[in-house]
Amino acid sequence: MLPPVLLAAFPDLAQDDPRVIHPADPTFNCVAWVAEVTDEWWWPADPDAFWPEGIANELTVDAIVAALGTVGYTICANGELELGYDKAAVYAQAGVPKHVARQTCDGRWSSKLGQDCVVSHATTGGVEGVVYGLVVVYLRRPTSC
Strand pairing partners for 141? Predict the structure, then answer.
């Protein structure tokens, strides 16, 4: 069961079959989660966070896409399940990146919600809204799924 504060922040999650799949952990965030890193916080323009060398250290969608490119992601057309690929969705508000979610092998999506837990949800829409904005780009990389 999701904590009430998360359901209040992400009301669409209630209809998206949410499941907590990793407990709250302030060590890593959504970008790190998508990169499959759980021991550091990835975020541009944050002097206390990790950011891949050679990637523009600016808070832009392009910088997030480039950072995830360092772990094999490239832009793709959509978030539909595609055998042989991991997918990611980048969320933004007014062009400013706010969140990244990762698709799991069963087609569900997983989101590391700030310093809180990782939640599995049925669609990318589960975390769209006033907190994270809308999906603005999808990415994919080869996987063993």
Answer: 86
pLDDT in tens, 84-107: 999 999 999 999 999 999 998 899
Degrees to nearest 5, angle at CA 136 with 99 and 42: 30
Q: Which helix (H) or strand (E) segment is 7 a member of?
A: helix 4-9
Residue 46, token pair as written in the block: 């944050």
Phi, psi of 37 (to 5 degrees): -115, 125
The answer, yes or no, to whether residue 25 has pLDDT greater than 80, is yes
pLDDT bucket at 116, cuts 50 / 70 / 90: very high
- Provide φ and ψ at 75, rounded to 5°: -65, 140
Torsion-angle region of 126 (φ positive above 0: left; ψ -120 to 50: alpha; else: beta): alpha
Residue whose C-alpha is closest to residue 92's, from 33, 57, 123, 136: 136
Distance CA 97, CA 34 (A): 14
Which class for 121: exposed (0-12), middle (13-18), buried (19 or more C-beta within 10 A)? buried
Average pLDDT over residues 41-57: 97
The Cα 82–Cα 142 span in angstroms is 10
